[in-house]
Amino acid sequence: MPHDPNQTEEELLKNQFFKEWQSTSELLYYTVICVSVVTLPALIFMFILLRKYKKSNYYHFLCSIMAGNFVLLATIFSNVLSDRNVAFFTGILPGVVVCKLSAFLVNTSSFFVHWAWVSMYVQRFLHVFFPLRAHRAGVKSKDIILVLFAFSVISQLWSPILITEISLGADESSGTYCAEDPKIFGESTLKYLIFFECFMTFFLPFVLTVVVDFSVLIMRNPCTQKKAFTVISADEIVHQDEKSPLKIVHKSKIMFDMRRRKETIRRCLLLATVTLLLNLPNYSLQLIDEFYHFRETPDFNVRRKFVRADAIVYIIYLLQFPTVPLYMYCLKTDFDRSKSKRNSSARRSTTHSFV
Prior knowledge:
GPCR_Rhodpsn_7TM, mainly alpha, 4 strands, Rhopdopsin 7-helix transmembrane proteins
């Protein structure tokens, strides 16, 4: 289509920017739709499958993580539908209310999910290294999750206050987006607030997750030392006094448990690393934009590049959601394999415990 000769170069760049913004919005719209249609039913399906593993130490954490991801993705999904003026959204809530509500739900669920992973891994660390103390302490997953949920809600109460609807052009007809209002606290204070928010929501929990997992993988379990109790195979016991405080376990069972633990930890590390890599570009770009304001710069060439980059990193960010039900299914397979192995070992040999 030929350009209007009466248009100035700035007007031409502005029109090109809005066209590119519309095309990237179209791409993100269909990407969110596809990811949501696949992932949301998969999360519900995994909720149903994991119900029979309620006795697992990780059951409540896994369910809460899936619930957090469900709320997060469902909020994004409903948000893109409302942007397209779907019939059941039209006229119900003003755009500014949708911005505040969706920002609060997204931030709260993100904060909760990231720290729920940390809490689950810390609990596993305690059970691996200090099983007797953890058992005596009676650590309850439900209580930890409730405290974490309350803290997540309280920590994100700033979102409805600062987040508002901002127009791309002179009015809303040019398009809008949700962002923090710099008029409330000022741009300088807002920058550090957003930096602290990203650090607490994303960077710190994932660093802690990787550190805790590596510690379980490479450190020696103090409970296998002589100060606690000794776990040895039946093949190694010769003329032991029956009154000795021994727990007799088949050697294959010990090797199987050690191998299964390492496989599970490696899988957790892999998931944490993948999630980190999928979140990192989006969080990093948003932080950079807070300090350099690429989204609102007068240079439309820079704004066009930012819109492209923002679309790419957001698509990468969305790819993390399908990995959650896939990971849960892998854990379910581990639970089934472990249960099958225990049953077969019980049939092959008799285990005695002396106190």
